[in-house]
Amino acid sequence: MSNISKIKKRLCPLCTKPINNNDLKYYSKPWKLVQCDCSFVYMPEVPIYERMKNEFSWERNFSEKNEISVKKRIRRFVKGVLKRDKLKDLLNKFCKDGEILDIGCGSGAKFNNISSNYVPYGIDISEESAKEANEVFKKRGGEAICAPSTEVLNRFGKNKFSGAIMRAYLEHEHDPFEVLKNLKYTLKKDAHAIIKVPNYNSLNRKVRGNKWCGFRFPDHVNQFTPKTLLTMVSNANYEVVKFNFFDYLPTSDNMWMVIKPKV
Asked: How far, in Å, CA of 239 to CA of 249, rounded?
């Protein structure tokens, strides 16, 4: 297969316009970011899904990088000890007991510290991660599937899940708006979804430039600001339940949001 046939061209995921995109200074050849006239920042050319299963999978790309320095490991450990588990807190506050869908579930490790009252189901594009998650989730009565989310969400059936998790997921998804729309079908009427994405408006991005932690070429294909995230979930017909200033601080590299389908 030629290199051209391994690449997918995209319209703007927020407004679907194909023109008037402005090239940005952030790139890693052959991948680049552009900014649409609607202000959304995204990669106009991305690897096809099949390449994400192995070639550009999270575990493969990170395992091939240099060892993390001792100093950085210590800093991450201290930060982890001091920081509360925000996902766990939000789940307990907004999602009722029952079946929870984790889109972009990775290895499923995040459920190690989450109440057994939640039965995890997951979707991940990486074959290795989905396999690991499936072993974890099966022990709790759930399962994990390796597939693009746009292709499998409806398989779970209507009104199945008490909640959904999209932590570090939407920045990877080629069709984030379609996923948000399709997710409503499988959520219960009173269900909530928890979102975490990199904060493109962060001061750290402006200081670090191309070295910002929110850039990961070619798998971070979307970059959200508070404004564009709000616009996308609103256009997908969700109500924003929680998204205050402390959820998208300019000093933070990430944003958190809780949404629910509009009735």
From this structure: 21
Q: Angle at CA 242, nearest 5°, toward 162 and 107?
A: 50
Domain ranges, ordered by start, for the chain: 21-261
Helix (H, G, I), strand (E, B) or coil at 218: coil
Q: What is the mean pLDDT of residues 158-183?
A: 97
3-state secondary structure of 33: strand
pLDDT over threshold 60, residue 113: yes
Give the C-alpha separation, 85 to 82, whole Å: 10
Q: What is the 3-state secondary structure (H, E, C) of 168-208?
A: CCCCCCCCHHHHHHHHHHHEEEEEEEEEEEEECCCHHHHHH
Entry pTM:
0.90
Beta-strand ranges (E) seen in 29-94 are 31-35, 41-42, 45-47
Q: What letter represents residue 166's amino acid? A: M
pLDDT tops 90 at residue 58: no
Q: Which CATH architecture has domain 21-261?
A: 3-Layer(aba) Sandwich (3.40)
Rounded CA-CA distance 153/179 in Å is 8
User: Cβ distance 98 to 159 under 8 Å?
Assistant: no
- Of the candidates 219, 214, 243, 217, the one whose C-alpha atom is nearest the C-alpha of residue 229 is 243
Give the residue carrying structure tokens 């407004």: 15
